[in-house]
Design a protein that fits this description.
A: 499 residues; two-stranded antiparallel ribbon; B: 539 residues; two-stranded antiparallel sheet; 24 helices
Chain lengths: 499, 539
């Protein structure tokens, strides 16, 4: 079978990381990988090269405006957006994990391989409306992540977190599968767009089975974005996983699930308007629950990673509010927010690595006084936390602004009020991070430990943190450029919205 | 230089922040240099603001204005819009004046990270100037919120023992008001299709009255927290007491003013009907703030806390003047905002100076300070009298106009509330003079551990240089307040006309505002300790 250049163009961004993912385990077969630094460097270099090549292929497509497809897989603007999003997150994860795994003393090639497989699955997940492909992509990125959570086998909680994530994830995936099966059974087609049209034509739009099917699909997405009540895995999984992996999960999994949610419910299932309305009201209730539970629980955390986990739950709430508002401009707000969220969260988790906090030493007490030690990192931390809290003039504020504006415009004023109250609550725990960094002096015990330990040297993680801070600032000052030139084009040309 | 000629306001607003970032980049070892650069920059900004803004007559047209489209997101255009007109001219000058003065006044107060402190101070100046000048509500909102960040760190890093609590409370309190306000803003902007107040105002009056009321309440709560109006004032004592001297001065001098300014600039002009509707509750809360603040100030043991509560009382006067919906009351409120900035700022500076020497602020730790620090006592006395509102000082004119406005407002509650508020003036004399007596008069406190014992030196030249301009201003504003309210007269008249205040409430328009008290012998002044024959700014 020979492929046309256009098909190659659609496939290459996925093939390259997949190939590298297969190559890297071969390199790590060497028994010396724990001792020989050059083997590790080659592994990491290969992974970065694969991510970079894939990124290059996608940006080339973005520049020319081509939207090639390979059978059911359509590498359209939205998929290209997803690709850029996931690959940037992956590159940062790889850079951070070089430092982090060295700090932990646990450098293994298979983590990179798993990460690259997850990347392939994630991009694939956003390229299709074909249910089989969708499900395969979901599993392709979920299974490596289950393993990645438990990757540092030396830590006992790591296995626990991985197992928890795997079991709940398997249930969610089977629900997702069931939802697709119901829709397929009623419509006779695997393509969700075609299925929606068929169901509409058959007058089955409000058939209970269709509703159940759509609800189960929604459940699958909500699990991946860790919305309440499908959030319980999140704090344990984040706490158990290495910092860069936790950052990657919080950003990429959530982002891809939201983009696919927009593609399926914001575009493919639009003919079934009645179903969409019901799903939005379900999403509204769950968004409220997510905001309340996520924010209130985050208040009482003492571990920074758990705090960030609950914070990421609550951000799923804001993003869901964008889905509830339901307008193309709100979807644009969601995409914009995802871009900023990528930088904020990769940056926040990157800080933990850059400060050299390993193992369980990630409580607020461990952060005390660190802000003054490395001013550039300290300023970045302030930018991330204030942006997460939605304080202008940083990027996070504009994301919330766009979503709340559409929410108010669509008549959901009470939801917007709840949203701002939630971000008020969230300001408290983000400030707590800054209180620890700047307003408290390190405890005597911490000072003693710090003087015993060799100085932390994490240049790669530090560099990613600075890049993230720059992105958050850019989101604050070049907001219209980013929203119109990047996220809006993904929606206009990818989904045909906002024309 | 052509850019500068066409964008003087942009320069004034953003130059401090740019300088602040430059200072942040100066290494810790050169912190003293950083502080000096920061101070010189602030002085330059002050001089430039004086030369660019002063000398304009009081007309409705803005003195300087810049407006350009900035960006459009989710269908709402946001303008880059700065302007200085009669309503904000003196507040802008007060800001640029207080920043270098405070830097100089607290030169040696801080020991560590002085460079960072100076940088934050300059960033704060950008936030304050931007909020004062912004003529687009979204743009205003950006500055309004961004201002919290440097202030948060100033309180939190350099503050007293309870600084973390105070800083977080300050941040969250203000954020709470402004977030709810943001929702109202988004709602109204959605209806108007713009963030320009000139477009939003008419759009607002087209809405049902109940909606207008809700929107006004959202605006009012956000601004009232900043003022702060009773019962939303509880963040203020904590923030004031815990903040370092410089933070307290700027907090009292400028940040609180932004609340009152928000009412004059946005809340009242955009929702005139709703504002009139809520005049009574606003006035009632103001009167409660005046009396309650004064009563609580009376029982404080800490001088700084006393001054903080006196702020609540004084800012209550501002709100009462605004709620009177008279020209004289509103003009009085504007003058009172300047007064409070000068007098309370000076009080915080003075308290800071004594604290730097004695390391205590407890009234009971002092006694007989007049013997040890005669020059300091002189300055403190003048500022105290100004805070009380003695005729010939600024405090008198502002409070007098406000009481006059409230009394003659024609509202059913006007006379009663004005009379009640007058007791605040009396109580002000009680708590200030009582504190003054206990700290400065009496036999010298010879106790080894006392504050007086540690006062080894009187004011030095630097401190006198800081206080002298303030004293000059106190007297100037008391003797010839016309200088400071002439520019705001036309905008205020226009504002109240738009608010359709009934004739009786605007009858003080003619003759000119500064003669009004003389034309109508005002019972509001009865409680003045020494009621003068010549009223207010008549001289």
């Amino acid at each position: 079978m020979s492929l046309t250049p256009s098909q190659w163009a659609a496939l290459l961004p996925l093939l390259v990381p997949a190939l590298a993912a297969c190559l890297i385990p071969l390199m790590s077969l060497d028994k010396d990988q724990a001792t020989a630094k050059w083997i590790r460097a080659v592994m990491y270099g290969t992974a970065l090269l694969a991510v970079g090549a894939s990124f290059w292929f996608i940006t080339e497509l973005w520049k020319t405006g081509a939207q090639p497809s390979f059978f059911q897989m359509r590498m359209d603007r939205l998929a290209q957006f997803t690709g850029i999003f996931v690959l940037v997150a992956a590159a940062m994860t790889i850079l951070q994990s070089w430092d982090h795994f060295h700090q932990e003393g646990w450098v293994k090639g298979e983590t990179l391989s798993l990460l690259l497989f997850a990347v392939v699955g994630m991009i694939l997940f956003a390229t299709t409306t074909n249910f089989i492909l969708l499900f395969l992509a979901l599993e392709l990125f979920s299974l490596p992540l289950y393993a990645l959570v438990g990757t540092v086998r030396a830590r006992p909680e790591s296995a626990e977190g991985g197992m928890k994530y795997f079991l709940t994830g398997a249930v969610a995936a089977s629900c997702f599968l069931m939802g697709g099966v119901l829709i397929y059974g009623l419509s006779g087609t695997l393509d969700l767009s075609a299925a929606a049209i068929t169901l509409k034509a058959q007058g089955l739009a409000l058939d209970p089975l269709v509703l159940v099917g759509a609800a189960l699909l929604l459940l699958g997405f909500l699990f991946k974005v860790s919305a309440v009540p499908f959030h319980q895995w999140t704090p344990d999984a984040y706490e158990a996983s290495p910092h860069p992996i936790a950052g990657f999960m919080s950003v990429a999994t959530k982002g891809v699930a939201f983009i696919a949610l927009l593609r399926i419910f914001g575009s493919s299932l639009v003919p079934l308007a009645e179903v969409g309305v019901r799903m939005q009201s379900v999403a509204a209730i769950l968004a409220v629950a997510t905001l309340v539970v996520g924010n209130l629980t985050a208040l009482v955390q003492t571990n920074v990673k758990r705090m960030l986990a609950y914070s990421s739950i609550s951000h799923a709430g804001y993003l869901l509010l964008g889905f509830v508002a339901g307008t193309p401009a709100a979807f644009n707000g969601v995409l914009f927010y995802l871009v900023i969220y990528l930088a904020m969260n990769m940056g926040a988790f990157g800080l933990l690595t850059a400060y050299g906090l390993v193992g369980d030493h990630t409580t607020f007490d461990d952060l005390r006084g660190l802000g003054w030690k490395r001013p550039a990192l300290g300023v970045s931390a302030a930018i991330f936390m204030l942006s997460l809290a939605g304080i202008p003039p940083l990027g996070g504020f504009y994301g919330k602004y766009m979503i709340f504006r559409e929410l108010v415009g669509a008549g959901h004023v009470s939801l917007a009020i709840l949203g701002v109250l939630a971000s008020l609550v969230s300001a408290y725990y983000y400030l707590r991070f800054l209180v620890a960094l700047f307003l408290q002096t390190p405890g005597a015990e911490a000072e003693r430990l710090a003087s015993d330990r060799p100085a932390v040297y994490a240049p790669l993680a530090g560099a990613t943190v600075l890049v993230c801070a720059a992105i958050v600032l850019a989101g604050g000052f070049l907001q219209a450029f980013l929203a119109d030139g990047f996220t809006r084009r993904a929606l206009t040309e990818g989904l045909g919205l906002l024309r | 230089m052509t850019w500068l000629n066409s964008h003087p306001l942009s320069f004034l607003v953003f130059a401090p922040a740019l300088l602040g970032f430059v200072i942040l980049a100066i290494p810790q070892t050169l912190a003293r240099l950083a502080r000096m650069v920061g101070f010189m920059g602030a002085v330059a900004i002050f001089v430039l603001s004086l030369s660019w803004l002063l000398g304009q007559s009081g007309s409705l047209a803005p003195i300087l204005a810049e407006r350009a489209p900035w960006f459009t997101l989710v269908g709402l255009p946001v303008d880059y819009s700065l302007s200085v007109d009669g309503l904000n001219l003196w507040l802008v000058l007060l800001t640029t004046f207080l920043v270098p003065l405070t830097m100089l006044g607290t030169w040696n107060s801080l020991k560590d990270r002085i460079g960072t402190f100076a940088a934050l101070f300059l960033l704060l100046e950008t936030g304050m100037l931007g909020a004062l000048m912004a003529q687009d509500l979204f743009f205003f909102y950006l500055f309004w919120e961004a201002m919290l960040i440097p202030m948060y760190f100033m309180i939190g890093v350099w503050g007293g023992d309870e600084r973390r609590y105070a800083a977080t409370k300050f941040f969250l309190y203000t954020l709470a008001g402004s977030l709810l306000w943001l929702v109202a803003l988004l709602y109204l902007a959605g209806k108007a299709g713009s963030f320009n107040p000139a477009v939003m105002g008419p759009a607002a009056s087209a809405l049902p009255f109940s909606v207008q009321c809700w929107l006004f309440l959202a605006f009012a709560v956000a601004f009232a927290i900043k003022v702060p109006l009773f019962p939303l004032h509880t963040w203020l004592p904590d923030a004031h007491v815990q903040a370092p001297t410089a933070g307290s001065v700027i907090l009292a001098g400028v940040l609180l003013k932004l609340g009152g300014y928000g009412f004059i600039r946005f809340a009242i002009p955009m929702f005139p009907a709703a504002a009139m509707h809520y005049a009574k509750p606003l006035a009632l809360l103001s009167v409660i703030a005046i009396v309650y603040g004064a009563l609580v100030a009376m029982v404080q043991r800490d001088i700084k806390k006393l001054v903080a509560y006196s702020s609540v009382s004084h800012m209550g006067f501002v709100m009462l003047g605004l709620a009177s919906f008279t020209v004289i009351g509103t003009q009085g409120a504007i003058l009172q905002m300047l007064n409070h900035g000068i007098s309370t700022g000076a009080l915080f500076l003075l308290v800071g100076m004594v604290y730097d020497r004695a390391h205590t602020r407890m009234i009971s730790d002092f006694g007989g300070v007049a013997v040890k620090m005669p020059v300091f006592t002189g300055f403190f006395l003048v500022v105290t009298l100004s805070s009380i509102g003695l005729p010939l000082t600024n405090g008198f004119v502002g409070e007098f106009w406000i009481l006059n406005g409230a009394f003659l407002s024609g509202f059913g509650w006007g006379r009663l509330y004005a009379s009640l508020a007058t007791s605040g003036v009396l109580l002000g004399a009680v708590y200030m003079l009582w504190m003054f007596k206990r700290v400065f008069w009496g036999p010298e406190n010879k106790d080894e551990g006392s504050g007086t014992h540690h006062l080894h030196s009187d004011l030095n030249a630097r401190e006198i240089a800081v206080l002298l301009p303030l004293v000059v201003l106190i007297l100037w504003m008391g003797i010839h307040p016309r200088t400071f309210v002439a520019v705001s007269e036309a905008p205020v008249v226009a504002l109240l006309k738009d608010a359709k205040a009934p004739a009786i409430r605007t009858f003080t328009l003619k003759p000119a505002v500064h003669e009004a008290p003389a034309a109508h012998p005002a019972p509001g002044g009865h409680a003045e300790p020494a009621e003068p024959a010549v009223k207010g700014g008549h001289r």
